[in-house]
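Researcher: Before we compare anything, I want clean individual predictions. No alignment, no superposition, just each chain on its own. First chain goes here; please echo the sequence and then give the structure tokens.
Model: Echoing the first chain and its structure:
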Amino acid sequence: MTSQAAPEISVCLPVYNGEAYIGQALDSVLSQSFNNFELIVTDDISKDRTPEILRAYQARDPRVKVFFNEVNNGALANYNHNLSLAKGKYIKIFAADDVMMDGHLGRMHEAFEKNPSVSLVACAKQIIDSEGKLLSISSTFPSTGFYPGKDVRKNCLKNQDSSHIINMIGEPACTMLRAADVRGGFDAGYFHITDLDMWTRALAKGDLYYICEPLCKYRQHKDSTTSNNFKSLYYALDFLRILDKNLDLCTELYGSREQAYLSVVEHLGRFLDSLVKDGKTDIPTISENLRDWADPIKIQSGIKRVADQRPETLTNQEYFRQLALFSLLRTGETAARLDSTYKELNKQLAACRQELEIIKSSASWRSTKILRMLGKLIKTQS
């Protein structure tokens, strides 16, 4: 690659206080056999030795381009700033604590070059702990090859096994995209599944090529606080947003937008119920978090008008109101079903009692009274 030529691949690596793993991450990129790439690193005003480490790497390898932010932008904004600096034909988003395995860039680049219909390449991964110890290997597709973009989107938005939204593709460490499909960056409206949103956007334009061989190591850190249990509350808002952004599949998968929302409510309810049963939280704590999270909460008929707005205009509080509205709707439907069942059982009980009275008043019932008395007497004595 000459200094003037645009690189084939831009490896985009945002970082903040990454001194523990940044060296290993950079080494894994720079040692790739495919070398037609630029490595863009944006530091979000790290307080540790990260800037010193980055300057050393930049000094000895011209492919490393380091940019130091003037203010702390936060993780998502740092990712988007990094992406805006990329000049490559393909975009490889990477994290400062993950590791590329040999052949990662070359295999993914080859998949794109040979297959014009592919808009996203992904691979299996090794999951490692904070010390680098192998925990497991994850491969979410049965074999290496093509998977139609629409089918993958559908399986992410309503997974065949779990019947709810799930990221079948993996983390950024597992993927590569065409630069044209990354324009605009990550959607800042999400709390957690902004990567899945980007994958579904790319797959709306083309197909997935999946490599079953692990080509990266994804570092899994333990959750440090109980508050992480409440990520599910934010996931619920993310689910509503991504369903709205994929309305072309929402009706096909769930029957209607309303049924899709009710599915999110049920999934959230089951998750919180499991937390309570496992002793990880309790109802008062959940209520307190809900109040802190979206205060004030006003459920009123006017909220229904929110559902008619375009998805990109909705705020997270408006999504929460929709979530609460559909929770109440599902509760109301459940109560109505129970009430209907109760009334039906009462009707059946009344009919049984009426039938019993008819039997008791019959001649045959009266004539066999002595036999019933003898039966009771024999049962008592035995």
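Researcher: Okay. Second chain, same rules.
Model: Second chain and its structure:
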Amino acid sequence: MRRQIQILSAAELLEAPDVYDTLIDARSESEYVLDHIPGAVNHPVLNDRQRISIGTLYKQVDSFTARKHGAQFANLNIARHLTGWMDHARDWRPVVYCWRGGQRSGSLALVLHEIGWPVRVLSGGYKAYRRYLQQVFPALIEQFEFRLLTGPTGSGKTELLTQMAAQGFQTIDLEGLAHHRGSLLGGYRTPQPTQKWFESQLFHQLAAMDPNRPVWLESESSKIGQLHVPEQLFQCMVSSPALALEASLDARSAFLRAIYQDMQEDPDRFRVAIAALQFRQPRQMISQWLEWVDAGQWLRLSESLLALHYDPAYRRSQHRLHVCDSMPVTPGVLSTELMHRLEQFEHHEHAITQTSIPAADH
């Protein structure tokens, strides 16, 4: 009796990632970019152009003709993919998924199975994975305690999280995952990921952490650029103990100028971002900022943006977080003293948090 291709559920895949060596996303390249299971590699059985062509045949000719062409495309693509897998030994364990766990993953898995590799197919495909993530994400968040770094723009919170991670703290850089620095001036040249891909990365990072230790985050608004922080996580953030970082305006201005080099190298993008502040700032101030962009007076611009835009916004939002302690810092520098304070703060009892302040959208 021939061995059948094994099926794997989304729960089995995510809870025991050691059951496979390679996770193969057989969907098209655009489907993969929108969202995929972190760690998956994209080997389309049908690419975007081919899917459009087959869809046209279904509508304008008939399903039989479309399926013939689909089989031709699929077999040519699978043959090309195989050239990259020829060095794998007999015990290579691939898992394959497509949109619903149907023909695309099935056709690729059949070839791998016939060769003799112990391939598995994700039951229900990507849709089953996404449904499972949405079901278990809130409960996963509830397993953890969180600690927040808050403080005015330019105090170096994001950079400190990176250094803290290197020292063994559990940290998640939400702005890094969102590819955005969290304000109207915080965008990069390249676009943000999709909401689904943001959530997938966040879920997998959190799932890999120890729930017996706190996880450090930077205080954020409910939106980072165009992406939404999951509601359950945001509610946990605003109720978690926060440590406020304090730094002088001069120090923060210099730091802000350094980390916004990409904006200075693209003045047109800077102008567009500043112009978008006109609904919050007087027309005269917008004109002055644009003049400083044209003149390349970046430090002066940084100081003014902090004093007149960012800092007032930060102060207006101080009703939201539970700030339990504060500490003067050099922006972006994880000093020995700050390390000691962070270690103490990890053991801070939630029950004794004081009335406090949140970080604004920065």
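Researcher: What stands out in the second chain?
Model: The CA atoms of residues 141 and 233 lie 6 Å apart. Additionally, The domain at 143-352 is CATH 3.40.50 (Rossmann fold).
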